[in-house]
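Example protein as discussed:

>
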Amino acid sequence: MGRIDELTSWHSDWRGLKVAVLGLGVSGFSVADTLAELGCELRVFAERADAEQLDILDVLGVAHFTGPAASGLPKELLEFKPELLVTSPGFKPDSEILVWAREAGVPVWVDIDLAWRIRDKSGEPAEWVLVTGTNGKTTTVQLTTSILQAAGLRAISCGNIGTPILDCIRDPSGFDVLVVELSSFQLHYLGEVSPQAAAVLNIDEDHLDWHGSFEAYRAAKSKVYQNTRLACVYNVGDKATEQMVIDADVIEGARAIGFTVGAPSLSQVGYASDILCDRAFIEERRDEAQELATLDDIAEIGVVTPHLLANVAAAAALARSFGIPADAVREGIRNFRLDRHRIEVVEEANEITWIDDSKATNAHAAAASLSSFDSVVWLVGGLLKGVDLQPLISRFAKKLRGVVVIGRDRDEVMAALHSSAPSVPVIEITTEDNDDVMTQAVAGAAAFARPGDVVLLAPAAASMDQFKDYADRGFRFTAAVKALGERDSLG
């Protein structure tokens, strides 16, 4: 551990450090590439790997083991005797190789740990903003980046989205701010970093199959506030996030800043009528508020929903911690557009609106969607990740015109619907042909829908049982809706 503790800079002596890298996805490859540049001695273990990436590792002289040679506890790893292990965050803590590392006293990092230590490669290190939460992370990160860029700062979204953080660190031009999205997996492993600002947007049950319990999931999320130097941004409507700030060991002088979809109190950012207001970062905050944007500005983004308003307020609070002027906040909001598959209107016909929110991969995200509409035909299901949907269904049963159930974990969804919404009509899509799932699901939804309804794909589940990913699920939904429209005029 002694040598590892001394490696706190790009300019430290990393040469010859024996490192095992687990996983060869986007982040794993960036880890291997970076450590090779630093002169470390590497072994890469990945059950699945892209042939082109392996070719590059060969050029770099990095030894790699794939397929069965990377499963379990590889003998090549034991023989290598690594001084450090850098893991993809997808590896569960109880996986054989990570249990071995703990017992052997081998430090375990993720790419974020490495990035923090070598952040001085291009000169003055960028400031960091950390964002996590059960729902809304990507939108908030991208919005914050858009606002910072509107103010003239060189900012980039990275971490769990966009460009791998190590690629940002190694960019020769450097950045002023890295806005880093962090998953609960990354946070579980993360060591000490010290961001300027950090936010937990919300917290609800998710990834319980990975963490083992809600308490462990919440503990991972709460790490985002540790060592924050200026602004701990929390959700006024989610008291658990405020408690995380209270419990966090922050740098002296850091402030708790709330965001809300209601009227802001002292040290909060929120809404007075149709105006986004700041009562946190102005001198006269006890008696006055600074206008940042209007609902018309926010409507430029897309469908104005309560969770979009919350994300905008959170992003504004994070950006204002940098002293960003109000006009840049407004410009950054107006310039921003949501990514695909996030409350995306894909068709409006015969007074029925079809919406793709395939990114709603957990119950909290689905609740945000369902709460935005009055009468819904709901497409739900997939991989539930250990989460019980019964509370979600109970909460929104009165809004449901009908439900179409897809996915591997259909039995659990059907049982929850039978228990909590017995009067709501349901269609279960049982086809084994994954290419036909959405065609049948959309046809079933069309049979339920009436004028004024929203047909909402908000599955509250992961997608990899029947689709490549959530984007593939959303694209297939859109294609099926378009095809139905051409055939049946959507109604």
The chain has a mean pLDDT of 93. The longest helix spans residues 470-488. The CA atoms of residues 155 and 281 lie 21 Å apart. The longest strand covers residues 41-46.
